[in-house]
Amino acid sequence: MDTCDLFSSCRKGDVGRVRYLLEQRDVEVNVRDKWDSTPLYYACLCGHEELVLYLLANGARCEANTFDGERCLYGAQSDAIRRALREYKQVTSCRRRDHYYSFLLRLLEQGIHSDVVFMVHGRSFRAHRCILGARSAYFANMLDTKWKGKSVVVLRHPLINPVAFGALLQYLYTGCLDVSVEHVSDCERLAKQCQLWDLLGDLEAKCELCVQPQAQGRGQELAGLPRALKLCSALRSGLQARYVREGADHRAPAGRLTAAGGPGPAGGLCPAH
């Protein structure tokens, strides 16, 4: 019922209702209907720019040269929506793609036969112990010790970003990760904490591609770069990210860590219970 409500709200452009369904009812943002269409596709098709931007910011997939991405571009009702789709920055890390990819992604997104739920700042993620334990020594150890016998694990550490945690689960299930540039540092921090060195290396390599050559030198002014590129550049140089928003100079929030150094979340992912 919630899924049908989501598709209907996207066709109507009801941002408030969509926000409620995604954030309060935990409806999957990339769910598909019987026509293999996603909420983002309907928002584009019906010309709801504000809703398109909200869905993109909350994990809707629209990568170029993919079925979903090209379909959204083709169906978009305005140039503004097409620009938003083209300009939306994604960092993609993929270690492998095989015939199990779609099956495992569906298993994660639909939570079929899940036996553990992670609660991260109000968002729930259904998962499977056998997959997490097989893919990560860190998760295997935690599931056998601190999380043993728990069907719900609550993670309240302020440095654990729900979007990054969801992306991390996607990587563990499929070997692929899609995340907006602004969440790369959060993903790197989690990858390091969970000892996923392949993922950490991939993210660092992808970030290098985001940085314009003239802005790569340490200490070079970043104010002229787009916000996404400046954040990415700061990850590599160890500088504090600077960007201009509405004519004012802002600095990255205190405590935001970069790949260049800084402490990780104390005590691992710090389950509350």
Automatic annotation (TrEMBL):
CDD domains noted in UniProt: BTB1_POZ_ABTB1_BPOZ1
Cited Gene3D superfamilies: Ankyrin repeat-containing domain, Potassium Channel Kv1.1, Chain A
PROSITE patterns, sorted: ANK_REPEAT (PS50088), BTB (PS50097)
UniProt KW Cell inner membrane keyword: no
Stored InterPro entries: ABTB1, Ankyrin_rpt, Ankyrin_rpt-contain_sf, BTB/POZ_dom, SKP1/BTB/POZ_sf
One Pfam family, short name: BTB
Chain ranges of the BTB domain: 114-181
Residue ranges of ANK repeats: 35-67
Annotated signal sequence range: none
Keywords recorded for this protein, A-Z: ANK repeat, Repeat
Entry superkingdom: Eukaryota
PANTHER family for the chain: ANKYRIN REPEAT AND BTB/POZ DOMAIN-CONTAINING PROTEIN 1, ANKYRIN REPEAT AND BTB_POZ DOMAIN-CONTAINING PROTEIN 1
Protein name: Ankyrin repeat and BTB/POZ domain-containing protein 1 isoform 2
Organism per entry: Sus scrofa (Pig)
Lineage: Eukaryota, Metazoa, Chordata, Craniata, Vertebrata
